[in-house]
């Protein structure tokens, strides 16, 4: 009888541990699945974007030309050749035609809070590396230099000169990246990145 009770206790303990582990795995998987993401192609209908995204983008109504998420979301440009993905953005706005609702731009800050310089530069370097791997090229690089982790550029960022770099994908798309000061307290330097994505607009800019 004692052996039977001990065996039952052990079985119960094993079952309890298994159920707790299953619950934990379920929570982790659920958390991963619930991560917000905005996925789009340029010129596709906005409501179609909402259907294959998982986000808080609001429904489109006639006359709307901008939609903003209310919860952080990553952005993924859905393109077989030039696609890229950003970190989660607390601010992410999708621009569209107020007449046809077709998407024409995305503006976001790929972070959920203002960041120290090291962290902000790391995000910029990663985004530029993604663009390079996908075939994007710096545009007018002698004027809009790619962001590099070097003392001269860091000094310009700290002096709030808001350096910007422009990248082109063939003759189709353009990305502008810049970094700006957030707050003026030198004891707590923080910075914000802005990414603007859309069709090319700077083809004939008179530099280089």
Short descriptors:
25% strand; disordered C terminus; 7-stranded antiparallel β-sheet; alpha+beta; 208 residues
Largest β-sheet summary: 7 strands, antiparallel
Structural category: alpha+beta
Average pLDDT: 84
Strand-residue fraction?
25-35%
Distance between the termini: 90 Å
Low-confidence stretches: 2-33, 204-208
What is the approximate shape? globular
Number of strands: 10
Percent helix = 25-40%
Please state how the strands of the largest beta sheet are arranged side by side.
2-5-6-10-9-8-7
Radius of gyration, rounded? 23 Å
The helix/strand order is HEHEEEEEHEHEEE
Protein name: Lipoprotein
Keywords: Signal
Descriptive account of the structure:
With 208 residues, this protein is α+β, with helices and mostly antiparallel strands. It has one domain (37-199). It has 4 helices and 10 strands. The chain has a 7-stranded antiparallel sheet, with helices on one face. The chain has a 3-stranded mixed sheet with strand order 1-3-4. Strand 8 (164-169) and strand 9 (173-181) form a beta hairpin. This is Lipoprotein. Keywords: Signal.
């Amino acid at each position: 009888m004692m052996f039977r009770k001990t065996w039952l206790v052990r079985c119960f303990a094993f079952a309890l541990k298994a159920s707790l582990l299953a619950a934990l795995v379920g929570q982790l998987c659920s958390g991963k699945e619930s991560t917000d993401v905005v996925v789009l192609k340029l010129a596709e209908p906005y409501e179609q974007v909402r259907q294959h995204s998982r986000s808080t983008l609001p429904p489109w109504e006639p006359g709307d030309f901008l939609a903003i998420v209310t919860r952080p979301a990553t952005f993924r440009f859905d393109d077989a050749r030039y696609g890229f993905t950003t970190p989660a953005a607390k601010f992410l706005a999708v621009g569209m035609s107020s007449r046809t609702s077709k998407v024409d731009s995305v503006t976001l800050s790929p972070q959920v809070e203002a960041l120290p310089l090291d962290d902000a530069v790391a995000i910029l370097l990663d985004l530029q590396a993604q663009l390079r791997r996908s075939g994007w090229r710096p545009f007018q690089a002698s004027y809009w230099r790619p962001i590099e982790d070097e003392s001269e550029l860091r000094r310009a960022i700290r002096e709030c000169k808001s350096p910007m770099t422009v990248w082109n994908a063939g003759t189709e798309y353009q990305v502008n990246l810049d970094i700006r000061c957030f707050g003026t307290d030198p004891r707590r330097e923080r910075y914000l990145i802005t990414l603007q994505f859309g069709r090319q607009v700077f083809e004939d800019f008179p530099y280089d």
